[in-house]
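Risk register update: the risk of archive-format incompatibility is retired. Evidence:
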Amino acid sequence: MMGNRTGVVVATIVVVAAALALIVWSSLGLNQVTGRICITFNGRTDCRTASGTTREEAIRTATEMACSALASGMTDRINCGRTPPSSTDWQ
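Archived output:
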């Protein structure tokens, strides 16, 4: 009975340590790229700022945010997401 309890404690410590290591690694080890992306879709334009570890990630995130304001329905969101940015500004 005592061995099972020790295993649970050890497993909990390992999970907590791994979570803390991931938090420290992600906050210290990644360079962030930030950009302001404008998307024009169906005659309307929306601009959003997003950050990511790469330009592609920042573009994807900003595009998804802009398209959520510009598109209605899944088909529009897919088509909007495929639209190249009308402008980008990297910081």
